[in-house]
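DM from R.C. (forwarded with permission)

"hey, sorry to bug you on a friday — could you get me a structure for this? deadline for the figure draft is monday and I only need the backbone to look sensible"
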Amino acid sequence: MKKDLLSLLDLEKEDFDSLFARAIQLKKRYAKGIVDRPLVGRTMGLIFDKKSTRTRVSFETAMVQLGGHSIYMSAKDTQISRNEPAKDTARVLSRYIDCLVMRTFDHTRVEEFAKASTIPVINALTDSYHPCQILSDIMTVIECKGGYEGLKIAWVGDGNNVLNSWINAAAVLGLDISAACPEGYQVKPEIIEKASRKGKLNVTFTKDPRTAVENADVVYTDVWASMGDEAELSKRIKAFQGYQVNKELLEGAKPDVMVMHCLPAHRGEEISEEVLEGDSSVVWDQAENKRHMHKAILERLILGN
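My reply, with the result:
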């Protein structure tokens, strides 16, 4: 039976832990020069409506290094741009490729494709969720902290798709998350409600970044204006004053705090140059780990392991 990854609510705790273990194993084997090619003869398709650097390249290199092939399709270059129904495109692609990775705006688009497809569909980012990002992020936390249990994770910034996926992860894994978002930019109630149906949420919300980062083990931030929100940037810059992750804010966190950002970063806005380039920053490890986590995801979904 095929399995999709549209949000982290599609996974159980054992799925998370298995993916973490396999991704870390694949990373170590790659560093030793060991070649793993379980996907020889398999093909991954990518349909992207949104621009991408890390997600696209990490998925493509992951597939190639596992022995498979990838086909990139900009939505504007396919019949989707001429209003072919999603279910028709999904049915045809299911006859050609072994999995489909999608990056789009409306989350219902990936749900439509998944419903009509006979192959796994992977959400590589929608306006609602960014599940693969959080899987690689928690992998990074495990590498740096030895695990994810018992840690306080603080979020400072917009209540966007990345935070939504952290909340989903919290519902499954029991993570302790404290999120600081300004008025008008909080997480939507339906996101919280849906996650709450999966498991008990240990997530607190505040408008004060200092409260959120107090004694935090991990501090995470993201751009103030996500893709599609760029026209609101000047308005958001005003609303997010005081929400920059900088040295002063981190004084309230634990001395060994790790700072995370999924990139691209706007230095001097949501994060200071000093912190981004500082010893607490693990942003480059995060970026690297996307490739290894994507390997684990592709292997699991395509082979059904």
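R.C.: lifesaver. The radius of gyration is 19 Å.
me: no worries. Residues 74 and 203 are 37 Å apart (CA to CA).
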